[in-house]
Amino acid sequence: MTSPQSPRGAAAADPAAPEAPLPRHVAIIMDGNNRWAKARGLSGIRGHHAGVEAVRAVIRRAAERGIETLTLFAFSSENWKRPVSEVNALMELFLMALQREVKKLHRHGIRLSVIGERSGFSASIQKHIASAEALTRDNTGLHLVIAANYGGRWDIACAARRLAERVAAGELAPEAIDESAMDEAVSLAGDAPVDLCIRTSGEQRISNFLLWQMAYAELHFTPVLWPDFDGEAFDRALADYQGRKRRFGMTDEQLEAQQGE
């Protein structure tokens, strides 16, 4: 798996500094749809529909900025606890997006992947997920990842089980299980670790999202509700990231020496 220290040399347009590296992998916790709708006297599902346009805007901007991987937290394993009517509406919206948006993604060279426990979804949704991934598999542009029925603890537990099964089958020695082995067993094994995690709506927690993959991620919290999050807001998050000093456990002097090599 790619080292988290590896910089991305591309530059963002204003307001981001042109000499600063951009994140290779951006993850977003899309929060605030219900609050956005409530403030306008609308139903919660209207907020989720409004959030779809924000998804489109951020995908466009991420592709323009040359981001390698964009992972969106669409539906957590805990979201099944929400009212049945809202869950059903979210499933309908997910299916509609798979039916209507995937060909557009394909035309723009975007590769789509879905991570999470798929068995919780209807047969129709599972079929459309598989079809979408197959259609876009060979695209070389932005890698768009949708985390649906996903939880970070679930991901790590599944990875541990897979490694245990390999040990039981005699394919892997117990002492060979290290961080690199886990990197290859969790979701998104072929992608760079998350460099930047954005959460909208003012909440300041990661909510069981990509726990392993975000070990060294920079966190950006914004009060903007998700339906109002657009390309400009995404650029502000990138600019914030570019102003950070990422040490990865090193001192400033070590970091400066490494960068001067």
Written description of the protein model:
Helices cover 43% and strands 13% of the residues. The chain is of the alpha/beta class and 261 residues long. A six-stranded parallel beta sheet has the order 3-4-2-1-5-6, sandwiched between helices. Helix 1 (33-39) packs across helix 2 (44-65), helix 2 runs parallel beside helix 3 and helix 3 runs parallel beside helix 4 (123-136). It is globular and about 55 Å long. The relative contact order is 0.20. Mean pLDDT is 90; it is low at 1-14.
Identify the strand order in the major beta sheet.
Answer: 3-4-2-1-5-6
Rg, Cα atoms, Å: 19 Å
CATH architecture of the domain at 25-150 and 194-243: 3-Layer(aba) Sandwich
Total helical elements: 8
The SSE order reads EHHEHEHEHHEEHH
Distance between the termini: 23 Å
Structural key phrases:
261 residues; alpha/beta; Undecaprenyl pyrophosphate synthetase; six-stranded parallel sheet; 8 helices; 43% helix; globular; disordered N terminus
